[in-house]
Amino acid sequence: MIRKTRLFTPGPTPLLPAAQFAMAAADIHHRTAEFRALYLRVLEQLKTFVGTKNDVLLLASSGTGAMEASISNLTSPGDRVLVLSAGKFGERWTAIAKAFGCAVDVVSVPYGQTFLLEEVRKALKIETRAVLMQATESSTGVRHDVEGVAKLLKKQESSALLIVDAITGLGTTHLDVDGWGVDVIIGGSQKAVMIPPGLAYLSLSDQAWEATEVAQNPRYYFDLRKERKNAQKGESSYTPAVALIAALGAALDFIAAQGGGDLAAGRKALVENAETCAAMTRAAVEALGLKLFAPVFPAAAATAVYAPEGVDSGVIVKELKNRFAAVVTNGQGEMKGQIFRIAHIGLFDYMDTIAIIGALEQVAASALKLPGFAFGKALAAAQKVYAERTGAKKEAAEEALAAR
Amino acid sequence: MIRKTRLFTPGPTPLLPAAQFAMAAADIHHRTAEFRALYLRVLEQLKTFVGTKNDVLLLASSGTGAMEASISNLTSPGDRVLVLSAGKFGERWTAIAKAFGCAVDVVSVPYGQTFLLEEVRKALKIETRAVLMQATESSTGVRHDVEGVAKLLKKQESSALLIVDAITGLGTTHLDVDGWGVDVIIGGSQKAVMIPPGLAYLSLSDQAWEATEVAQNPRYYFDLRKERKNAQKGESSYTPAVALIAALGAALDFIAAQGGGDLAAGRKALVENAETCAAMTRAAVEALGLKLFAPVFPAAAATAVYAPEGVDSGVIVKELKNRFAAVVTNGQGEMKGQIFRIAHIGLFDYMDTIAIIGALEQVAASALKLPGFAFGKALAAAQKVYAERTGAKKEAAEEALAAR
Q1: Is B388's Cβ below 8 Å from some Cβ in A?
Q2: Most buried among A297, B25, B136, B333, using CB within 10 Å?
Q3: For the segment B306-344, what is each residue's pLDDT rounded down to a tens digit?
Q4: From residue A101, how far is each of A104, B134, B201, B234 by CA, in Å?
Q5: What is the domain-level CATH number for residue A363?
Q6: What is the mean pLDDT of chain A?
Q7: Residue B219 and residue B365 in one domain
Q8: Does some domain include residue B1?
Q9: Alpha-carbon distance B89 to B188, whole Å?
Q10: Per-residue model confidence as pLDDT tens digits over A73-116
Q11: CA distance linking residue A120 with residue A132, whole number of Å
């Protein structure tokens, strides 16, 4: 059989064709009026996409670059920070903070779980300079309670900055950045915005900008004050990734189109899209008799699933790749071999989702011994979820229309 | 929900990305050594793809252009031809032959059926100059018996040329062009070779080339003798569609890769691929309780399905388009509103096929009143067909390996 390669990975995610075309056509110099117009437009769109009144800055780096920038620009050696860690990317916060000389406290929970706010409260100290967390932990498919942590900091009258890696959270989960009081929010290009890796973006609250004035950690390439000054003129401090920025503009146009031309509505539609794909997948996986890795706070970005007892999850990843050219990811860190992850972040639709479930049934039939297995069971479960979610909405919309 | 547009139409078919890239990069002049090398290579590959020792010619035209070329180059006004007509494209043979002054006999069967060889035999006259037929009738999804007709002509010692429109037949059905004695075989670019419309190709037997010497019908753009002379030098008579030819080269490379680098094996794999997608679709449609339009000689190029009693098939086409951006086709000619057609020709894989079946279940659930409908039934039927077809082969291959 023909096998078309399809990414079902939580980054890189499938590329938007309109963004690919924009990228291919981006034959422009970056110190020109043409580029400045593009850059200012994309930065403005990003503010709406992130949902903040603050400036959003774009960096030619991976998401980790923006994580580093938020540490190097906001902390000084010896500063105390609190990391909420529940997976590989939580661990990365610890590593970066340590590299920049911070004293790191950690609230750590096992992979697949999330934090109790009470534990966070206990770990918070008067001198805690920043709380570092993920909106969703890509390595485990768990959503963390950003709103809860933000509220806790307010309630405790903590002066700690809340720094959120929302690299897989943006576009897959509801985030009220300014309303909740998130001080730094970080995104990446190869995620919900459907373009290749190479760009990171972040925005800082007023309080965070104040912190950049006193922070003593060294930074040059990631100097955010310099970057903001330039960005306001439509310039980047160093050579920008022009083609990716053109692609990002096209992708944000596409997302706006999903909201009938309104980018904020489009972002909401994108989140709902991921939620529906995730709900279909969870229902299917449970109908197969497989166990969800994160049944309690599942992220819509990706669904993590336990391999059956005695089966290496790498076998499932490999079978999906070899037989269907469907690329799903293994567990990361300590979960490698135990779970596999199917993504819903970005450009996935009903057709993609039902197809990967079909492929998973085929792999289950040939490579897994699941009691009570029958072809169509997982697919039927996903079909029902889709029909309920879209049918209910459709009826509500029709009723609203009839009520006018 | 996000909806990615996907063609499930029997031409144009989904584009091969590698061909799209080759097309975009094709910035070359056609009267250069560079183009001649490309052209000679593609013409040579086409011979293998068609499965003939004869020259294959490429025309910058749609498939209908090559149909006309085969009439204008091989017949004279007043010549008697026999058209085997069972759909819109059979009717097109009649129209073209009449336009060039031929006396047309027709064996006509209703849409959805194919001819009895006995009827063909009865209609054949001593003076019949050519028999015109389709390998598969795209408008109805029916496969015709090219081998049977070829054998019949031999048995009857007929001097009639056998001219076969294999525009949707090539790459979806087994055709032994030289072995059976097909005199003219015709293909189009927007079909199994996965590139956009704009190119037609055809090859002629020695007997057909002889006929071009005596044919009196006028032709200039489609003068095949001139075209062959030029093609042998790597030239086209008139400006060739360079980008499409570059795309075709990339597509034929892809097809060869499906056969482990062997283009003839790749063509066979492509046929089997379409057959599996078609078998999955037929099983699903029947499990839904819908009726196949061509249950007896179904083509692998596309599956034609009756809409349920009292439902316009346009409703199903529209729902698939509006809700899933999945483009299937309505019936053509007199079948419009009665059937819809799902394609398998070209770049379709398991994932595409299971997804369109899922979408069809959703449409059935919301828009059709099918007795006994349940989510997953059609999908399960397709899953079983896929598992049987690919599993059986896999086991056989493993046994063969074990037997060494």
Answers
A1: no
A2: B136
A3: 999 999 999 999 999 999 999 999 998 889 999 999 999
A4: 9, 76, 69, 69
A5: 3.90.1150.10
A6: 96
A7: no
A8: no
A9: 14
A10: 999 999 999 999 999 999 999 999 999 999 999 999 999 999 99
A11: 11
Q: Which domain holds residue A365?
A: 6-11+262-403
Of A3, A270, A354, the CB nearest to B355: A354
- Which of B225, B258, B291 is where one domain is finished? B258
Last residue of a domain, one of B232, B258, B284: B258
| DSSP string computed for A172-233 | TS---HHHHT-SEEEEETTSTT-S-SS-EEEEE-HHHHHHHHH--S--STT-HHHHHHHHTT
Asked if residue B96 is part of any domain, the answer here is yes
| Closest residue to B349, CB basis, from A2, A269, A383 | A2
Q: Is B343 on the interface with A (CB under 8 A)?
A: no
Residues B254 and B317 reside in one and the same domain: no
Smallest CA–CA distance, residue B384 to chain A, in Å, is 7
Return the C-alpha torsion angle A31, A32, A34, A38, nearest 10. 30
φ, ψ of residue B222 to 5 degrees: the values are -100, 30
Rounded to an integer, what distance in angstroms lies between the CA atom of residue B14 and that of residue A4? 11
| pLDDT tens for each residue of A235-277 | 999 999 999 999 999 999 999 999 999 999 999 999 999 999 9
Cβ under 8 Å to A: B residues 282-341:
323-326
Distance of alpha carbon A105 from its chain centroid, rounded? 24
Choose from A6, A350, A398 for mutation: most chain B CBs within 10 A.
A350
Count Cβ neighbours within 10 Å for each residue of B196-211 and write b for 16 or more, e otherwise: bbbbbbbbbbeebbeb
DSSP strand E in B22-178: where? Answer: 56-59, 80-85, 103-108, 128-134, 136-137, 142-143, 161-165
Q: Whole-angstrom Cα distance, residue B208 to residue B331?
A: 34
Q: Residue A383 and residue B377: Cβ atoms within 8 Å?
A: no
**CB distance from A403 to chain B under 8 Å?**
no
The domain that holds A230 is classified in CATH as 3.40.640.10
CA pair distance B9, B352, nearest whole angstrom: 12
Model pTM score: 0.94
Predicted local confidence at residue A404, as pLDDT: 43
Q: Is B254 on the interface with A (CB under 8 A)?
A: no
CA distance A46 to A56: 7
Give domain status of residue A1, yes or no.
no
Tell whether B107 is within 8 A of chain A (Cβ).
no
Residue type at B66?
A
Among B216, B105, B96, smallest CA distance to B158 is for B105
Contact flag A383-B391 (C-beta cutoff 8 Å)? no
Residues of B in contact with A270 (CB under 8 A): 2
For the record, the structure tokens of A222 come out as 């990631």
Phi and psi at residue A156, to the nearest 5°: -80, 0
From the list A258, A323, A386, the residue facing B362 with the nearest CB is A386
Among A85, A298, A49, A82, residue whose Cα is nearest residue A195:
A49
Give the ipTM of the model, two decimals please: 0.91
> CA-CA distances (angstroms) from residue A170 to A192, A213, A241, B118?
7, 27, 21, 68
pLDDT recorded at residue A140 = 93
The pLDDT-based confidence of A197 (bands split at 50, 70, 90) is: very high
Interface contact B76, partner A, CB < 8 A: no
pLDDT confidence band for B372 (50 / 70 / 90)? very high
> Is the minimum CB–CB distance between B376 and chain A shorter than 8 Å?
yes
Q: Are residues B177 and B68 in the same domain?
A: yes
Partner-chain residue, chosen from A2, A272, A380, that has the shortest CB–CB distance to B273? A2
Range B336-353 burial, b when 16+ CB lie within 10 A, else e = eebbbbbbbbbbbbbbbb
- CB distance from B404 to chain A under 8 Å? no
Give the span between the Cα atoms of A119 and A112, in whole angstroms.
Answer: 17
Q: Is residue A340 part of a domain?
A: yes
On the question of pLDDT at B391 being above 90, the answer is: no
Q: Total domain count for chain A?
A: 2
